[in-house]
Amino acid sequence: MKGLVIGGGVAGLRAALDIANAGFDIYLVERDYSIGGRSAQITKSYPDLTNIKDVLKPLMEEVYNHERITLLTNSEVLGLEGEAGNFKVKIEKKPRYVPDGESCEKCIEVCPVEIPNEFNERLDKRKAIFVPFSYAIPDGCVIDETNCLHFKDGSCSRCKEVCDGINFDQKAETIEIDVGSVVVATGFDPFDPNLRPELAYDKYDGVITSLELERILDEDGPTGGKIIINGKEPKSVVFAHCIGSRDKKVENPYCSRICCMYTAKEAYMLREKLPNAEISACYIDMRAFGKGCEEFYEEVQKKQVLYRRGVAAEVYSNGVNLVLRAEDTLLSEPYESAADMIVLAVGVEPKEGSSELAENLGIKMDEYGFFVEKNMYDPVETEKEGIFLAGCCQGPKDITDSILQGGAAAAKAIGLMGRHSN
Ligand SMILES: Cc1cc2nc3c(=O)[nH]c(=O)nc-3n(C[C@H](O)[C@H](O)[C@H](O)COP(=O)(O)OP(=O)(O)OC[C@H]3O[C@@H](n4cnc5c(N)ncnc54)[C@H](O)[C@@H]3O)c2cc1C
Ligand code: SF4
Ligand code: SF4
After folding, report:
1. How far is ligand 2, taken at its centre, from the CA of residue 95, in Å?
2. So what's the pLDDT on residue 320?
């Protein structure tokens, strides 16, 4: 009997590996061009500053090379029928147009199309034929047909002229597979700060999101790890917590759980790069509940990172600096912090496309759009037998908890498939 995992972030990778290692064949369906998920955009992890690439890349390679795992990237689940132990799943597998591993990159040089690079949070550009990121798996180039001129109007085939491997005739195909169980691990999207226009994210280059800062901090990122805003190093930085979380106005009253700690980590890393800058954080209260997190938060404060209680209300420019206006929650009075750079600690939202997937699979979503577990004693099961949840698709959580839930979902899937195999 075979299994299916949907989503190739850390939760899905862990689930796929554990199920495969128990002796079941697994399909891993990933919507993007590469596995890795959001974690691949992050440089180091709190609380011990683990270099993410050092742990994520081997996990991705193990999945890719596992003889029991069939990886389908650029693919999506279209529908599911049947019952636990005997599901029929329809999958659309879209073409990449370039054979896996093909990466001399001459094609990239000749491609005339430049568009914002999503992996680097649109801080730089990529071509229509491109390598998704340095350690993407499958490796090599892919063609993004939405932006490629060959598919738009037939006006270009320059990449094909320098690379025989490229095949524009590849077509999307729909395949049908039989599986006994499904693990859903489709992750999250960060909150869109434009939904709080008073924070002027779109107005000033100095207002950035925490995920943009992750890319800027990365030596492989768009600035080579240099902290540059408006052409120069910022002398002062303010972090604004709880953007798009604990906020009824944007209909996200929940806490996103990860942003207090990832902000502490980003402040620590920023201090290493900007030893003389003023760094402060505007926070409602500190949620440092994971192992080693409270200790790390204390370390961060020793690095001259000033924490002041407040709810971020508005950002404006005074002509010299950006200014964050906040409401001090202890003194019940407003205050202002001027800075060259303001980092919005954006919260966790359900992944785009979750409602379609819920409908296709016949599972439920909560009022915010996260998939719903059966109950608190069965936190990876759904009400539909044979379909399990792992990672941020069920609710906000960090990498360790996502991996834990991936392992727990795998154990349930293995048990179910074992029972149905006998
Ligand atoms: C700014 C920032 C900093 C962070 N820093 C840290 C940190 O230091 N330490 C830490 O522990 N955590 C950190 N996190 C949290 C971490 O990113 C998440 O815990 C982790 O990515 C969750 O993994 P996941 O597998 O659940 O989801 P994801 O990483 O979102 O992966 C989900 C995967 O599913 C795929 N997918 C989505 N929909 C479909 C579909 N319909 N079909 C097929 N595939 C689909 C996606 O393309 C993606 O590859 C940070 C998050 C942010 C935003
Ligand atoms: S055919 Fe498309 S991908 Fe190839 S060079 Fe032209 S625009 Fe770029
Ligand atoms: S983890 Fe911290 S920053 Fe994130 S929503 Fe919760 S309290 Fe706010």
Report:
1. 15
2. 93
